Amino acid sequence: MTTTQDSTNSVAPQTNRWPAVAAVAVGTFLLVTAEQLPIGLLSPVGSELRISEGTAGLMMTGASIVAALAAPAVPLVIGRLDRRVLLVVLMGLMTAANAISAVAPNFAILLASRVLVGIAIGGFWAVAAGLAVRLVTDKAVSKATALIFGGVGAANVLGVPLGTALGGFAGWRLAFVALSILALVVCLVLVAVLPPLVATQPVGPRQLADQLRNPGARAGILATFLLVTGHFAAYTFVGPILQQLAGIDAAFVGPLLLGFGAAGIVGNFLAGATLGRALHRTVLGIAAGLTVLVLLYPLLGHGPIGAVILLIGWGLIFGGVSVSLQTWMITAAPNAVEAASALWVAVFNLAIGLGALAGGAVVNAVSLQAVLIFAGVLLALATLAVWSGRGALASVPETED
């Protein structure tokens, strides 16, 4: 992979800090799982707090939108603050926010706690996204990035089944308690293993604006928005799709989503292994593969066998999305990794919320088959955006690690 060096780190690390990389990966997993958790808890939360499932869905939409705002805002506000201190503080905020969620007496308090979760998600992910170049040597950046985004990818594909399982076995409040306890553990581990990460050139409005003038970063942001919006427009309704379209019993939906998640974890590391040699071709293959699979679902997903095969393929390919697109952004903006990552994380989280919202509108107005076609069209546009960005990365040699 091409050498990248963030402007916040003037000296490239001479040794690999794998415990620190692993701790950041677990942190991103917990934060993004917290973002996805409400999807599996809508019914029990709505029932206990006497609100509709649609209203309960604001727990996820609200956190995603706040995370999108926090991703660029936090780096702007903190200036030269040691990123090690920032990550620890944000994980502490995550601990407190989920504890508040667990004891919330009404929906207003619960929604306020989700705002705090959104701040933690956006700030932590925006900084963590570019940390690989500061924690490992140049040759290990691809592997470290894959590990960090193994946490993000695993959370994106496992968040729903984990939330459903925790809520079913222990109750929705205990699900938040579990997240709070795990966040506290990660907070303490971060204190122990992270080195000082002082920013010599903090992110400012100019650095953020520059990324919109960078053709490679601009193509990556557009591709991310279209791809993530398309995915979540369909994936938010994967349960009803499996039951109503494929005729699969509700009891098998949870295990199948775990299979989707397991395939996604494999896909994350498969993509990470190829990015150093063929970045553009890897991202293009992921976007095109998702387009084909989602568009095939209305045609071949009417029976259990076809639906399961397509679902596992979908998980395998989507698992490579986070690590691939983040690597695209690092490559397109090697001297402004934190700024580019902040914008990318903002767009990613915004697309999650908008995808779920748009998908719900299509399902309500038309049908489940229609939302798959809608998602497929967005994914096709994402493929075109990736294809159009090939020239922007042409000056970056794709070589063996």
TrEMBL record:
Name listed for the protein in its UniProt record: MFS transporter
One Gene Ontology CC term in the entry: plasma membrane
Subcellular location: Cell membrane
Membrane topology: Multi-pass membrane protein
Domain of life: Bacteria
Membrane-crossing residue ranges in chain numbering: 58-78, 85-109, 115-135, 147-170, 176-198, 219-238, 250-271, 283-300, 306-330, 342-362, 368-387
Assigned keywords, A-Z: Cell membrane, Membrane, Transmembrane, Transmembrane helix
Primary localization: membrane
GO function terms (MF aspect): transmembrane transporter activity
InterPro entries, per database record: MFS, MFS_dom, MFS_Efflux_Transporters, MFS_trans_sf
Major facilitator superfamily (MFS) profile domain span: 20-400
Species name: Nocardia panacis
